[in-house]
Amino acid sequence: MGKRNTVIRSISAVYSMAVLVLGLKAGEPDRMDWWPGGLLMMAMMASPIVLGLLLSRKIGEGAALGFWLFAMAIIAAAGLALQWYTMFIGPSDAQNALVLVIVPVLQWLAVGAAFALAWILGRYVDKS
Predict the structure, then answer these.
(1) For the chain, what is the domain count?
(2) How many C-beta neighbours within 10 Å does residue 20 have?
(3) First CA to last CA across the chain, in angstroms?
(4) How confident is the model over 23-45, as pLDDT tens digits?
(5) What is the phi/psi pair of residue 26, to 5°?
(6) Quick one: which of 83, 78, 71, 69 has its CA closest to 26?
(7) Taking the CB of the first residue and of the last residue of the chain, which one, N or C, has fewer CB atoms within 10 A?
(8) CA-CA-CA-CA torsion for 53, 68, 18, 45, nearest 10 degrees?
(9) What domain range includes position 29?
(10) Over the stretch 62-98, which tens digit does the pLDDT of each residue have?
(11) What pLDDT sits at residue 30?
(12) Contact 67, 121 (CB under 8 A)
């Protein structure tokens, strides 16, 4: 259990750093008035994955844990890719900026669905 917690904390830290780097590169960190909103936005972008990974303590071992970590990796990669595209490739307009707000909400929904499936998998499938 100790190694599992270390791995999950490490993944959470790496994801948080990726979101921080993404936010700092796309934002205006040299302006003091950017920081309150920038930090709030970065926290919102990182929260589904970081808190989702911390939920893994509620998931058992075996197939349930494997499914959970695979689902979290897919959700994290898709979210980072969409946010990166929005910040650096897509057009700079209000509709495209909504992606930065909508993606974390969709990630929370995906994390909830994945948690439910992993919990069911651990509760009913891994026990038989």
Answers:
(1) 1
(2) 16
(3) 22
(4) 888 888 888 888 898 889 889 99
(5) -90, -25
(6) 83
(7) C
(8) -70
(9) 2-125
(10) 888 888 889 999 999 999 999 899 888 888 887 887 8
(11) 87
(12) yes
Q: What's the rounded Cα separation, in Å, for the pair 24 and 80?
A: 14
pLDDT at 1: 56
| Contact residues for 73 (Cβ-Cβ < 8 A; gap 6+) | none
Structure tokens at 115: 């948690």
Distance CA 21, CA 41 (A): 13
Determine contact, residues 84/49, Cβ cutoff 8 Å.
no
pLDDT, residue 98, reads 86
- Return d(Cα 84, Cα 36) in angstroms, integer: 21
Sign of the Cα pseudo-torsion (69, 53, 11, 49, in order): positive
Identify the pLDDT of residue 123.
82
Cβ atoms 74, 26 nearer than 8 A? no
- Structure token pair of residue 80: 């980072």
Tokens of 60: 């058992």
